[in-house]
From TrEMBL:
Family per record: Belongs to the bacterial diacylglycerol kinase family.
Membrane-spanning parts: 31-51, 57-77, 98-119
GO molecular function terms attached to this record: kinase activity
Main location: membrane
CDD domains xref list: UDPK_IM_like
UniProt name for this protein: Diacylglycerol kinase
Keyword Lipid biosynthesis (UniProt): yes
InterPro entries: DAGK (IPR000829), DAGK_sf (IPR036945), UDPK (IPR033717)
């Protein structure tokens, strides 16, 4: 009983490859993710410099991952919206604004958390 379906491990490896390709496209093409990557590197350096706790590291890494992941979803939504309706349309604009708003919310919370972690280090 032969099957033309790929073995599970091959399928998973291909999926990881596609995900990695998507991440590279995001980093190479999107200015906002480049800025977020620079900020992520800066707070990572700050984490080592200030010897933040294990819990602070976990929270900081979760926030970096959350902001950058939501930015990826926002970018994907923009690509879909532009593909579906290339010319300006109010509903497409609304969709893009809402997706950007989600990134903004995550970024604000990330900034608050960074303040909670690092401001006391300067006192």
């Amino acid at each position: 009983m032969g099957s033309s379906k790929e073995p599970f491990i091959i399928n998973r490896l291909k999926s990881v490859g596609y995900a990695f390709k998507g991440m590279l496209i995001l980093v190479k093409t999107e200015a906002s993710i480049k800025i977020q990557l620079v900020i992520a590197i800066a707070v990572t350096i700050a984490g080592f410099y200030f010897d933040i706790s294990r819990t602070e590291w976990m929270i900081q890494l979760v926030m970096i991952g959350m902001v950058m992941s939501i930015e990826g979803v926002n970018t994907a939504l923009e690509y879909i919206a532009d593909f579906i309706h290339p010319e300006h349309h109010p509903k497409i604009g609304l969709i893009k604004d809402v997706a950007a708003g989600a990134v903004f919310i995550a970024s604000i919370i990330a900034c608050i958390i960074a303040g909670l972690i690092y401001v006391p280090k300067f006192s």
